[in-house]
Amino acid sequence: MGYDLAGRKVLVTGGSAGIGAALAEGFAARGATVGICGRRTDRLAEVLERLQAHAPGSRSWAVDLADLDAVDDFAARADEELGGIDVLVNNAGIPKRRWAWELTPDVVEQVMAINYLSPVRLTLALLPALVARSGRIVTISSVAARLSPPAESAYSASKAALTAFFEGLAVDLAVAKVDVGVHVVNPGVIDTELFSLPDNDESLADVEALPVTAMVEPVVAMLDAGTFEIYVPDWFTGVVPAKFPDTGAFLQGSADYARQRLVDLGRPTPAPTVAAQAPTGPGGR
User: Fold this and answer.
1) For a disulfide at 142, which of 12, 44, 159, 232, Cβ 3.0-4.6 Å?
2) pLDDT tens for residues 162-201?
């Protein structure tokens, strides 16, 4: 039946740069009025100017979605000021490339809060309005949710939780015969600043990064077709099934690949710190 973006009201989180900004501009170019949010007011203003060239009613909000207690109020404000939301795009998130033994509980909780809890809370806050408007929910997950790449345990876990939540939401809405489309997008390596943020190890990926504009057409087509899940680039669709016949072998292959990449990059093979063992009896034994 198709889904026409013209005249729709779209909210894109993390819209000040990268994938969010590209999607926001792509939607506006197709006739949608787009609201974007992010933490950096200067970057929001730059993106908003481009949006308003297509859709003058577009607007922006400076908000930190890591503040979970503020999410509900922001949802209500955005819905009111946009005049209703037809499409929610959960895009805001942070990377965390770090060997698992170097993670701390605080870091894991921070990644989970921003990448999982925040979009879930925003979705739940807006769900009644989306149900009333037969809306659509687009969530930017990651191929990491399916493939568990090296040095990305915290990030992969947050995206896997995100994907699982929206799979369950899609099932529940279908049981209730509610006309709200749920969609999950799994980007691979996309040329965004997330690959160069401080406090992250250098990426081991050996694939060409796609420009952020490469995300727009697949997401628009997904909305139009009503597809639940896509990969960008789409060749990942053939990689993911290879994991599940023998997950152990797949993970070992990932480890072998990572070790070789470290050699190729001239980087040392990492190793966790081994704690000193306390003596257990006379003579230490």
Assistant:
1) 159
2) 999 999 999 999 999 999 999 999 999 988 876 566 677 7
Tell me if 145 is assigned to some domain: yes
81: CB partners within 8 A, 6+ apart? 35, 59
Tell me the residue range of the domain where 178 lies: 9-239
Q: Are 228 and 247 in contact (CB under 8 A)?
A: no
CB 14 within 8 A of CB 38: yes
**285 pLDDT band (50/70/90 cuts)?**
very low
Residue in 116, 155, 231, 257 annotated catalytic: 155
In a domain, 105, yes or no: yes
CB-based burial of residue 80 (10 Å sphere; 0-12 exposed, 13-18 middle, 19+ buried)? exposed
Q: What pTM value is reported for the model? A: 0.92
* Known catalytic membership, residue 155: yes
Q: For residue 117, how far is the Cα from the chain centroid?
A: 12
Instruction: Determine, yes or no, domain membership for 193.
Output: yes
Q: What is the CATH number of the domain that holds 64?
A: 3.40.50.720
Q: What is the 3-state secondary structure (H, E, C) of 123-162?
A: HHHHHHHHHHCCCEEEEECCCHHHHCCCCEHHHHHHHHHH
A 10 A CB-CB count for 112 gives 18
Which H or E run includes 231? strand 229-232
Place of tokens 């190793």: 271
What is the count of structural domains for the chain?
1
